[in-house]
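Ticket #4471: structure output looks truncated?

Reporter: J.K.
Steps to reproduce: submitted the chain below (198 residues) through the standard prediction queue, then opened the result file.
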Amino acid sequence: MYICDNAYTREQILEMEKLMLSKLDFRLSLPTVWSFMRRFTKAAGHQNDETFFHIVSYVIDLCMIDLKMLKYSPSHMVATAVLAAIRIQGDTGGWTSCLEHHTGFTETALGACTQDVHGLMQQAPNEPRCKAVFKKYSHTKFDEVFPILSRAFSALKTESPCDWPDFVGCPLPRQFFTCTPLAHFSICFCSYLLPHNL
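Returned output as attached by the reporter:
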């Protein structure tokens, strides 16, 4: 009452508040990427896999500081990040019907966003604006996701998302395979985000 100098009664203010909420259909906020992350991760069957969730989070954090990713909806970005994590971890289940149902996207529909994410991840280690993201995901709390992925991408000799070498035999340090939860990472990475798999 004080803020309107007693121009309206308490009942009038509450009545107007109810009217406004009804007109807005109680939609007071927009969904963000965080609205979808746990649900899509669960749909992928990795609800208890913190490393998987950290990879998804890393991809999302990279997307959030790149203007060209604004053309994708939050759910589209999270679905693509989940697909990236599936490829990186070598999940043989792939993009399942359960994921398609809960995300609303087919694997093919994620193609353009997937290629943008691929390019972003490949170029990220050379981007000064990504330093805060790198520092965050270099911590053991986040399973040191950034050092693992940056070593993998730097081992690739191509800039093209369509041209990938045979990843088996790439000269990665031995500790890459032995001190991380992503030890099986290299086996399927050669097929990661290839357009013909989308």
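Triage note (M.O.): checked the attachment and the full token line is present. The radius of gyration is 21 Å.
Status: closed, working as intended.
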